UniProtKB/TrEMBL annotation:
CDD domains: PBP1_ABC_sugar_binding-like. The lineage of its organism: Bacteria, Bacillati, Bacillota, Clostridia, Lachnospirales. It comes from Lachnoclostridium phytofermentans. The keyword Signal applies. Belongs to the bacterial solute-binding protein 2 family. This is ABC transporter substrate-binding protein.
Length: 334
């Protein structure tokens, strides 16, 4: 009986050692894989889907786990703060985030950055410098480019410089640093170069919170309220889609439109040739890919050379939409 018990005890010990060895081996094989959280502004939005594709490709190419989350609306600032907290709770090695609000996200981002978590901002920034680096468009310059493009188009189509005309603007958010900088650049260039009779409706900028139905309704409001409307400017993707939809539904081919980004809606408008339209297109795929790449490098102990990295923009219209440069940006990886 004693001999039998001794044999059974020995077998239990061997099994236990084998099981622990297997667990330890599994842990060793995975401990080199880093986890990068990517927190976009609006999950499922066409613009952010391209960012997501870039981030996912980086994860595959570089061998890290990429977790992508995002809110349902640009107004859900509390939701984005929770995602940052969730990333920390999940022991993320680094975080890539597109801040919804420059002020409200300052402290949550600063708290994690100063505690040692690499924080890479994309698309938009926050107040202060408590983050690792920011990969984004030079938004003030992009806004100036948009104003320059609209003035040139209005003059090219023969709009009289002494004729009073209004330019309507709607935006996705009042707290987005990217949007605010674009509006700043637009108005700076407009004030310096546009005919005095052409007025930007800065006292009636409408905020759609990234809601496309709101954006379409706001476009319709502008068309009804301002009979002297000569142009519209959408400084972000959702606002641009709203203007495109409202203008095409109303068949207002007399208007000039300058938007941002390259949704399927604005692509159809550009290719159709009926409307006077151009869009400022960002390299958001690069933001997603290089955002993850940079975050991974930082998580592995690397350093960044520049606090701000300008990812650049292109002006796209019917004359260059099929050019190699533009196609490389709007259809990356194809």
């Amino acid at each position: 009986m004693k001999k039998l018990l001794s044999m059974m005890l020995a077998l239990v010990m061997v099994f236990s050692l084998t099981a622990c060895g297997s667990t330890d081996k599994s842990k060793d094989s995975s401990e080199g894989e880093k986890t990068v959280y990517v927190i976009v502004k609006v999950l499922g939005n066409q613009y952010w889907s391209v960012v997501q594709a870039g981030a996912e490709k980086a994860g595959k190419d570089l061998g890290c786990k990429v977790v992508i989350v995002g809110t349902a609306a640009e107004s859900d600032i509390e939701g984005q703060v929770r995602y940052i907290q969730d990333a920390i709770s999940a022991k993320a090695d680094a975080i890539v985030v597109a801040p919804l609000d420059r002020t409200a996200l300052k402290n949550p981002i600063s708290e994690q950055f100063t505690s040692g978590t690499p924080i890479v901002l994309i698309d938009s920034s926050v107040e202060g410098e408590d983050y690792s680096t920011a990969l984004m468009t030079d938004n003030v310059e992009a806004g100036r480019m948009a104003a320059k493009e609209m003035i040139a188009r209005l003059k090219a189509k023969g709009v009289a410089e002494d004729k009073e005309g209004s330019i309507a603007i709607q935006a996705g958010s009042t707290g987005s640093m990217a949007i605010n900088d674009r509006l700043k650049g637009f108005n700076e260039y407009w004030g310096e170069n546009a005919p005095a009779a052409w007025k930007v409706l800065n006292d009636d900028i409408k905020i759609n919170d990234g809601d496309i139905s709101k954006a379409v309704a706001f476009c319709q409001d502008f068309l009804t309220t301002y009979p002297d409307l000569i142009g519209v400017f959408g400084p972000n993707n959702g606002s641009t889609v709203g203007f495109v939809t409202g203008i095409t539904e109303a068949k207002r081919s007399d208007l000039t439109m300058v938007g941002f980004d390259f949704s399927k809606e604005i692509e159809q408008m550009i290719r159709g040739g009926e409307y006077d339209v151009a869009s400022i297109v960002q390299r958001q795929y690069m933001m997603g890919y290089d955002g993850v790449k940079t975050a991974l490098e930082l998580a592995n102990g690397g350093k960044v050379e520049n606090k701000i990295v300008d990812t650049g923009v292109l002006i796209v219209d019917h004359t260059n939409v099929d050019s190699e440069d533009v196609q490389g940006v709007i259809n990356p990886g194809k």
